[in-house]
Amino acid sequence: MGNFEKTENNDNLDKKNKVKKVRIIKSGYGNEELLKNFYDYLQEREIQEVFGVEKADLIISLGGDGTMLVAAKEAITTNIPVLAINMGSLGYLAEVKPQDAVKMLQDYENGNYKLEERAFLEVKYEDNTFYALNELVITKGGHEAHLIQVEVYSNDVFVNKYRADGIIVATPTGSTAYSLSAGGSIVHPGLNALSITPLAPQSLTARPIIVDGSEVLSFKATSRDDSVHLNIDGNQWFQIQPNDLVSARLSKKKIKIVKPTNSDYYSILRQKLKWGDSVL
């Protein structure tokens, strides 16, 4: 196994937390019966549900990874951790099962947990700043739209020009989402990096690339029919014009996700995404 010294961050294991108020965010599609014990526990402990995240001690996400994106938008305005309970089908980010929800909350209260930090993508467009946990996508307007041309710069240095259906710029968290399905690489969430993945590029040599997350990426996109869209985390859309400048970098803002002490990134990849499974 080698003689390297193994280092671990156990800072959170001794930190107990008093939870009196929670902000619950749910998708509306999960089976609420699976959470009966959890809701009973909240009632028994007199833990109050609040609707202003700034009043909460903990944010609880009840749903799948899509619900986590909603929770992330609220968590970014505070320093409050998110406990994600998987009520969906995949649950890559939301790995806690409904039957383990009470125990996970108890573990958080007793200091028996760890926090996993995931960085946001900071996107600037038209003097506005947006944050994405997964990715930004610059894409053509529809199925019948022409291919678009996207010029990519890093710290004002020309990187490449893509003629494609679009490009995906993903955080390490987003590297296992849309970017992965488009042929992008898996990027460990501990890395300060961004991945650029072309969508159905015209050139066979246009390959994904991983860049330093500290660099400022900027993009100029054009098309023959002026139909170019900017998509941020799948829930914010803008039609961008040829002279519009979009830029992005990995933000210092991070979401803190409450995880079991035995949570293992590579195990999650194998279990949830079937990474490494035989195709035969």
UniProtKB/TrEMBL annotation:
Segments forming a coiled coil: none
Binding, NAD(+): 65-66, 134-135, 146, 163, 165, 176-181, 200, 235
GO cellular component terms given for this protein: cytoplasm
GO molecular function terms noted in the UniProt entry: ATP binding; metal ion binding; NAD binding; NAD+ kinase activity
Catalyzed reaction equations: NAD(+) + ATP = ADP + NADP(+) + H(+)
Function comment: Involved in the regulation of the intracellular balance of NAD and NADP, and is a key enzyme in the biosynthesis of NADP. Catalyzes specifically the phosphorylation on 2'-hydroxyl of the adenosine moiety of NAD to yield NADP.
Protein name stated in the entry: NAD kinase
Biological source species: Leptotrichia trevisanii
The encoding gene: nadK
